[in-house]
Write a structure and sequence with these properties.
Elements lengths: L5 E6 L2 H12 L5 E5 L4 E3 L3 E6 L3 H13 L3 E9 L2 E7 L5 E6 L14 E8 L2 H10 L4 E5 L3 E4 L7 E6 H8 L5 E3 L3 E4 L5 E2 L5 E3 L3 H4 L1
Parallel strand pairs: 1-2, 4-7, 8-11, 13-15
Antiparallel strand pairs: 1-13, 3-12, 4-8, 5-6, 6-7, 9-10, 10-11, 14-15
Helix pairs in contact: 1-2
């Protein structure tokens, strides 16, 4: 495998989740939902980020999410690294809207350029090695605290972050148990990484 084709979120209410994500993401074929009643409690160990071009676009996406029923975990604001905020979808998934740019350069629109999946790792070095062994290559590495992998154009980007640091960034407590409620598509066979995240086979071109 070389990158993530699709992300499948496991939700209790498919109709509600589809309505929410249509309002926020439009018809993005990379994000899918399916029914699941697997128990989960607390932090699920991952977050998803929508990377936008400017703060105004982030605000527009944030507003669309809140209007559709999301809960604000961190209001969108400027920081030393850029601009962003965090919300939790009604199904429990944590999403971040972020841009490295602090100034607007055009009219606001609820649009995004990339989706990034950050997995909270108990041992970043061990998880990094798992992905290297399965064909991914490192794009950025910060002393085994944060790892970002190369991805194919249009694919969901994958990163590893220390679990506690990821929870802090999301504005939630790091403790959690049960199902991650997410499956990653793009592996040649079913795999499970050291932190329990499942990879499944999928083909965007064949299924879209």
């Amino acid at each position: 495998m070389t990158s993530i084709d699709t992300i499948t979120l496991e939700v209790a209410d498919i109709a509600a989740a589809e309505t929410f994500y249509a309002a926020v993401l439009g018809s993005d074929h990379r994000v899918r939902v399916r029914a699941s009643q697997e128990p989960t409690d607390g932090f699920r160990g991952f977050s998803l980020s929508l990377i936008v071009a400017q703060p105004a676009d982030g605000d527009a996406l944030f507003e669309a999410a809140v209007d559709a029923g999301a809960t604000v975990l961190k209001p969108a604001k400027k920081s030393f690294w850029g601009y962003g905020g965090v919300f939790q979808a009604p199904d429990g998934t944590i999403w971040k809207v972020a841009t490295p740019n602090k100034k607007n350069t055009g009219p606001a629109a609820p649009r995004y350029d990339d989706i990034v999946l950050l997995l909270g790792a108990a041992d970043v070095a061990a998880s990094k090695q798992f992905y290297l062994d399965h064909g991914l290559t490192v794009a950025k590495s910060f002393r085994n605290m944060y790892i970002e992998f190369d991805s194919a154009p249009g694919a969901v980007k994958l990163g590893l972050y220390r679990r506690r640091a990821l929870a802090k960034d999301a504005g939630v407590a790091p403790d959690g148990s049960g199902s991650h409620r997410i499956a990653l598509g793009g592996a040649p066979e079913q795999l499970t990484d050291p932190d329990g995240f499942a990879w499944e086979t999928s083909s965007v071109s064949a299924e879209s």
